[in-house]
Amino acid sequence: MADAKHDVKDLGLAEHGRLRIEWAEAQMPVLRLIRARFGKERPLAGARLAACLHVTSETANLAITLRDGGADVVLCASNPLSTQDDVAASLVADYGIPTFAIKGEDDKTYYQHLTAALDSRPNLTMDDGADLVTQLHTQRADLLAEVLGGTEETTTGVIRLRSMAHDGVLRYPIIAVNEALTKHMFDNRYGTGQSTLDGILRATNMLLAGRNVVVCGYGWCGKGVAMRAKGHGANVIVTEVEPTRALEALMDGHRVMPIADAAREGDLFVTVTGDLKVISGEHLAAMKDGAIVANAGHFNAEIDIDALEQGSKSKRRVRDFVDEYLYPDGRRVFLLGEGRLINLAAAEGHPAAVMDMSFANQALAAEHMMRHHGDLERKVYAVPEPIDREIARLKLESLGVRIDKLTAEQSKYLESWDQGT
Ligand SMILES: NC(=O)c1ccc[n+]([C@@H]2O[C@H](COP(=O)([O-])OP(=O)(O)OC[C@H]3O[C@@H](n4cnc5c(N)ncnc54)[C@H](O)[C@@H]3O)[C@@H](O)[C@H]2O)c1
To answer: Cys-Cys link to 350, which of 30, 68, 191, 300 (CB 3.0-4.6 A)?
Structure first.
């Protein structure tokens, strides 16, 4: 099968990758059910689907599901540091899925891989961060006429696409998978919460108990990171720009303060805002000796790395995924994973059990787009609510958890406006 087009690190890694793909599959019961139905019904027949996603064992299971649904799938990385090279090899060698992704690829190769995926002339796109869609609209507009629709995985991508739609430049409809409750309530919160700490611990082996952990951004991801850091015994400090979220952080039991103050107190900093230069050069210069800085937001723009490079007098790699920056006054600041999503750079990304729901949404959103693209405008759409609710139902069922059903009397009561006590 290795004749599928590819640019991966080493096809010799395929056997190890296949074992990981199978391990993830065992924990993705909802996606397995969808795959079985897709195999029979082939709802994606005729789709040429270019997917730009983190190339992990969970993504491999999604790609196989889409292929079994009848799509011609081509996969490229959505981040230079998030690829699992053995999984990429197995996708090519064992499953015949064209894959363009190498962990640690430079920016030039990253964009070449996007171009390689677009060379398949997709009529469906599946994106994580909207780089593929942006590349398509700005560099390969000649291909746009054939595109029926797309899906987007993450918060940052949805924000970019909404701004394209707002400016009237988005040329086809996109379903925002991130907005499904069965995506962001679980993936962003529990997935990012657990795996971000996993990445930080694997990179540093630091003890969190008793340390000041500064979480920048108290959105879905930030709540997860803060909750898990607290569970390890850390003192959590939250920085925010949105008053309601700051208040929520306070009432969840965390300290809240501006980053300029937090910069002096933190032992570990984690950015999860989707914003730019949340930790600036000034903040980096105010940190204690030994402060550790990491990012779990989509782009490596949250920490001002240029300022770190310029403000420090030397830099050396002291462990895998740990760069030490030495300031002229002798203080050291450690940057993890070059400021890229630390949960994917230094660990394995979200656990498969949570990606089960995110990727069930992706698969069903792709099916919905194939069926209904003709009815949709050039806008960003939410995942239809029945799909979202069905995924929650299937997940509960797979976990052996049963819940109650409304009685007819209760339904009537809840729907009426004229019944009080
Ligand atoms: N690492 C992962 O695997 C992973 C998974 C899901 C999402 N993400 C990414 O993480 C980021 C956050 O996602 P989310 O779903 O939590 O988004 P969200 O919109 O729910 O939360 C972001 C929060 O950051 C706050 N914020 C913005 N600018 C700030 C600033 N300068 N200082 C402090 N707070 C600021 C916002 O007010 C908001 O509350 C996005 O880039 C998203 O794409 C990463």
So the answer is: 191
